[in-house]
Design brief:
Chain lengths: 438, 708
């Protein structure tokens, strides 16, 4: 079940404010490494964010960055990013990894440090460059290299060389391995197939949901609603990237219906079109205590009320958001409808829809959530209002950060107050945050 | 990156042998410029630490003291002698050039050099092993001193060079003999003929240094050398062929061809003198050492060398303007620059600041211009041989800022938007309320009066002009322009900023064209007149090149851009009473058609891949063409002096040389005019004005100076 008892009231110490945040455009991985490493992405959105606070970058107490695919030239990317952002040699920085939850874990850790009085100003982010996910040598090839390396005499070397077979050189795609759960042996898409069956989600509904993701993102881009959130990227050739490029404004149900199931052929229903995309992107959020606001003359935009982390069977990891958000609702005496806007990370259309079904499923709510009845229907008009990972992409270590940032932006744009950002986590977990704008 | 802890520990990094850092304070010193102490193995450690100087130079007193020290060592021979610099920045950057100026005659020079050579030989002849430890720069006489030692150990990052040729000389402390004796003579000669810097890795490959190390390993390395564990190969097999006269003659012929093409020998005699020295005496180090003295003494007295030494000091003078003297209040360094306008100039200025380590934000309404600036900066990093890590850091410094947020955090906002008063005023109206209270508002304008720009500013005192020249990475000079209500603190900080980015500031007063454009334009316009009179462009340009300019006026006009030249000429014509000839219609039409010069592939010349295409021409130009071209420039310079656009003739000369490449061996326009004689100048101008019109009317300043 959950990691924290539902009845424990959170300790009230310092309120923790969200001051500002920014992210890079999310760029779809297209077969070869993109122009930016995780730290490059973090630096490119960090620089303008820090600059627009009129803050000295050394004023922070700590930097925390979520990143799953750490590139070997950038060990502890949080620290490398902090140094490259000019935050000073004396800036403590660490990287967190809880799969898809990394970008939210960084915020959560920062939130707890500030809440408990240990820090005043923290930069919490997420960065991921899945296009840089490595190709790996298979174990047999590694063994062969090791043998060659240990061969000291000429006869031994020749013997080792004779053991070479071309098949040794066939690489393993790191990303495929990374997206497969090692305990249950299912990849993430397969866990969505499991949920689709358990909650009766059909292919048409999943495709329809995927379509709205694209339409909403395209509308948001057109209307300029992402201007303050997204800062453009510039590569060394001078090329500018200013928009999330995974979106297909002209997507259609017909086009989606044509796609073959990608994880469980031929009878599955999860396709490339109704799944999140493999993407590069980074995001940062600035967290501050009351003291920091006064000292640095900062205007807060929202306050973090609470967070909750839950865990469940890896085979149905996609259901995680139901657990973590329900815990938050209960703790604060809210109903589904009391939350003005929701961000549920769109790992897979079927997965999101399964969560919504679960809340309307009375036996499930009684047996698993310990409620008296079904919790109710989450109004789709309040959910992922400007699109989500299906159209935007899911840079694994970043998404958790983006959905918190976007939630604040969307609430303020609509003049609304209360929101929950939540996501499922590969391996069978979930994080959720309850935010209120000011 | 600020690294205060590392800074606190820095002094203990240097390997000082038996010395502790505290012992290097001036309190009890037997010699003014040296420290000497023996360690437990009786190795004498000799540290060069010239008094009152941040870098070591071999002045007369330094060498005299060294002579005493060597004599003392000879009488009580140590186990070995280690020579290094106590200055954290470098080993030794050469002779004391200011002392050159005091040597008035060849015999004076010869006497000094003979003394110095005797000293060098004494070091070579010392019976104990001698080890030179080099960190930072070892240039000129500094390198020659190291060459006298048996071994040379260098610290990573050390650089080496013999730049005497840039002063119209060649090495004079034995380098012409010892350098080709130690390394490949062709490389040695190339180093001496070009004056270029050799970096640590190359020095190691050449055998110029014996080991390249981290500072922390020097102690062990010295011990290894003394224990005979360090093998050095002094055979210098590459030098063997050059012992033959005919081999040297052939090589010398090729060297002469190359040297002549770089620097015409009639203006720059030093390269040929060096080649002659080596051609004749390269097979006999003793002869070479001996003849070097006479060759050097002769060169030092040539007008070219005198003028190049003068130019060296003009440069130092301008540099000093951005670096206030000790004790005087030093303005806070600029840490963040915000550049508005990523056009040709703005983008390059922002890139240059980033290259120099400043944080720069760059705004433009067109984001793709910002991207172009990023690309050019990464190309510049490649050209300047920056490592991958350095390039990354430099590119991190340049922050694309399409949201224009940088205004609020910048210490200096530099405006480089198009040359239009309305556009600039609008920009200022938007910027000023958001700027930091003590931030400077600088404009890169070349043709709009600062008096007009300051109207409408809430605080006109913060406005200054910082005027760069194109291309920013090559033109060292920057005009710092003051209008009447500019705050002196703003001007000082702007001037210091120019030093921060490794450029030379020339403080000028706000007047049309400031100094450089006002002086250059009559020269360019006169070239156009000559073109209209039927001379070929190539012939006109050749006249200027023969004078000693790096390129002719018409090629320069194409480089700068005909549109810009026209704009400046129109502005000067309108705002000054100088009778500047009208721009011919054909030139206006050219500009309208888009034939702007180098940037459009066609202007007065055709340009391919950034290189000018010149046709063959017959060199006949009428007598007096050179005067027709140059005197308008001199005339305009005198006008600037008279109107106090710039403070003095020396600063003017420095500014013109470093902004336009004005024939350096002539010492600058005003110095050249002095050599001609002011009354001569006036007479020639009168004659020209009678023949060609009032634009040649001598400026009243020529005769006013004579009257004083």
């Amino acid at each position: 079940m959950d990691s924290q008892p539902l009845s424990a009231a959170p300790r009230h110490h310092q309120p923790v404010y969200i001051v500002d945040g920014a992210r890079t455009p999310f760029l779809k991985a297209r077969g070869k490494p993109g122009p930016f490493t995780p730290v490059d992405l973090a630096v490119q959105c960090g620089r303008p964010l820090l600059m627009r606070q009129a803050l000295d970058p050394t004023a922070f107490d700590q930097v925390i960055l979520g990143c799953v695919n750490v590139v070997s030239e950038e060990m502890n990317p949080a620290r490398v990013a902090a140094l490259r952002l000019g935050m000073g040699a004396q800036m403590p920085a660490f990287t967190v990894q809880i799969n898809c939850g990394s970008g939210m874990q960084s915020i959560d850790s920062g939130y707890r440090y500030i809440r408990d009085g240990g820090a005043d100003l923290i930069l919490a982010g997420g960065a991921e460059a899945l296009s840089h996910a490595p190709l790996l040598f298979r174990q047999s090839a590694v063994d062969w290299f090791a043998e060659l390396n240990q061969a000291r005499s000429l006869p031994a070397r020749l013997k080792a060389l004779a053991g070479f077979r071309p098949s040794l050189m066939k690489p393993v795609i790191g990303l495929e391995r990374g997206l497969t759960d090692p305990i249950v042996g299912l990849n993430m898409g397969q866990t969505a197939e499991v949920l689709a069956q358990l909650f009766n989600i059909d292919r048409e509904s999943a495709d329809a949901y995927a379509l709205t993701s694209h339409q909403r993102l395209a509308a948001a881009q057109e209307a300029g609603w992402l201007q303050d959130e997204v800062v453009p990227l510039f590569d060394r050739k001078g090329k500018q990237y200013s928009r999330d490029d995974g979106v297909r404004p002209d997507n259609s149900l017909e086009a989606l219906a044509k796609l073959q199931p990608v994880f469980e052929k031929p009878y599955g229903q999860v396709t490339a079109g109704n799944s999140s995309q493999i993407t590069d992107g980074a995001s940062w959020v600035i967290l501050a205590s009351e003291q920091a606001l006064i000292k640095h003359n900062l205007v807060p935009r929202a306050v973090i009320i609470d967070s909750h982390w839950a865990a469940l069977d890896p085979e149905i990891m996609g259901l995680g958001p139901v657990l973590s958000s329900t815990a938050l609702l209960q703790r604060h005496g809210h109903q589904l409808g009391d939350i003005d806007l929701w961000e549920i990370n769109e790992a897979f259309a079927a997965q999101v829809l399964a969560c919504l079904e679960a809340w309307q499923d009375a036996p499930f709510c009684k047996r698993v959530l310990g409620l008296d009845d079904a919790l109710g229907r989450l109004d789709p008009a309040r959910l992922n209002v400007d699109g989500g990972a299906i159209s935007l992409g899911h840079p694994v270590g970043t998404s958790g950060n983006r959905i918190v940032l976007h939630l604040v932006n969307a609430l303020q744009r609509h003049g609304l107050r209360r929101g929950i950002a939540t996501e499922c986590i590969g391996g069978g977990q979930s994080g959720a945050m309850l935010i209120e704008t000011l | 990156m600020n690294a205060p802890i590392l800074e606190a520990l820095a002094p203990r990094r240097m390997e000082l042998g038996p010395f502790s850092p505290a012992e290097l304070k001036p309190a009890t010193r037997r010699w003014q410029h040296w420290h000497l102490k023996r360690d437990e193995q009786n190795v004498a450690w000799l540290l060069l630490d010239k008094a009152d100087s941040s870098a070591n130079v071999l002045s007369e007193t330094v060498l005299r003291e060294l002579s005493e020290i060597i004599a003392a060592l000879k009488s009580d021979m140590p186990a070995a002698l280690v020579i290094r610099s106590a200055k954290p920045g470098s080993f030794c950057v050469g002779a004391d050039i200011s002392e050159f100026r005091q040597l008035k005659t060849e015999p004076d020079v010869i006497n000094q050099l003979v003394e110095a050579h005797l000293l060098a030989q004494k070091i070579v002849d010392l019976n104990c092993p001698t080890i030179a430890i080099i960190h930072g720069a070892a240039l000129g006489g500094g390198l020659e001193l190291a060459l006298c030692c048996d071994y040379r150990l260098a610290v990573k990052g050390a650089t080496f060079g013999v730049p005497e040729v840039l002063l119209g000389l060649h090495p004079g402390l034995g380098g012409t003999a010892r350098l080709p004796d130690l390394i490949d003579p062709l490389v040695a000669m190339e180093m001496m003929l070009s004056g270029r810097t050799v970096h640590d890795a190359q020095a190691s490959k050449l055998g110029l240094i014996d080991q390249l190390l981290e500072e922390r390993h020097l102690g062990n390395a010295v011990a290894a050398v003394l224990a005979g564990e360090v093998e050095v190969d002094r055979r210098n097999l590459r030098a063997r062929p050059f012992r033959l006269d005919w081999v040297r003659r052939l090589a010398a012929w090729r060297m002469r061809k190359k040297a002549d093409s770089k620097a015409p020998p009639q203006h720059y005699p030093a390269p040929r003198a060096l080649i002659k020295l080596w051609e004749r005496h390269g097979n006999s180090p003793d002869q070479m050492l001996h003849r070097e003295i006479y060759s050097f003494a002769h060169l030092l007295n040539t007008p070219a060398s005198r003028n190049l030494v003068r130019v060296f000091f003009l440069r130092e003078q301008l540099k000093a303007l951005s670096d206030p003297a000790k004790g005087m209040h030093k303005p806070a360094p600029v840490r963040h620059v915000h550049v508005i306008g990523a056009g040709a100039m703005g983008g390059d200025i922002a890139g240059w600041c980033a290259l120099q380590g400043l944080r720069v934000s760059l705004f433009d309404t067109e984001p793709h211009s910002i991207g172009a600036a990023v690309q050019k900066l990464s190309q510049l990093c490649r050209q300047k041989h920056r490592s991958a890590a350095q390039t990354r850091e430099i590119l991190d410094n340049l922050i694309p800022d399409p949201a224009n947020s940088g205004v609020a955090v910048a210490d200096l906002v530099l405006e480089a938007v198009p040359e239009d008063l309305e556009i600039k005023r609008e920009a200022y109206a938007e910027l000023e309320p958001r700027m930091k209270r003590d931030a400077i508002l600088a404009t890169n304008t070349s043709s709009i009066a600062l008096e007009k720009l300051r109207e409408g500013l809430a605080d006109a005192g913060r406005l200054v002009g910082i005027h760069f020249f194109n291309p920013v990475a090559q033109m060292q000079l920057v005009e710092v322009v003051a209008h009447s209500t500019a705050r002196s603190s703003a001007l000082e900080r702007a001037t210091t900023f120019v030093g921060q980015i490794n450029r030379l500031p020339a403080p000028v007063a706000s007047a049309p064209g400031f100094l450089v454009n006002r002086a250059l334009t009559p020269y360019l316009v006169e070239a156009i007149c000559l073109l209209d009179e039927g001379l070929s462009a190539e012939a006109i340009d050749q006249v200027a090149i023969d004078f000693g300019m790096p390129m002719g006026p018409l090629e320069l006009a194409d480089q700068v851009g005909l549109d810009i030249c026209l704009g400046v000429a129109d502005m000067l014509r309108e705002q000054l009473d100088s009778h500047l000839p009208d721009t011919p219609d054909w030139l206006r039409r050219k500009v309208e058609k888009g034939e702007l010069g180098r940037k459009s592939g066609k202007g007065i010349y055709r340009w391919k891949h950034g290189k000018v295409h010149k046709r063959y021409h017959r060199k006949q130009t009428p007598r007096g063409t050179q005067e027709r071209l140059l005197l308008p420039m001199l005339n305009a310079c005198m006008a600037c002096l008279r109107e106090q656009v710039i403070d003095d003739a020396d600063q003017l000369d420095g500014a013109m040389i470093f902004a336009t490449g004005f024939a350096p061996f002539r010492g600058g326009p005003m110095h050249y005019a002095e050599q001609l004689g002011f009354d001569n100048v006036v007479a020639q101008l009168q004659e020209l004005s009678e023949k060609h019109g009032p634009r040649f009317t001598p400026d009243p300043g020529w005769t006013a100076v004579a009257d004083e």
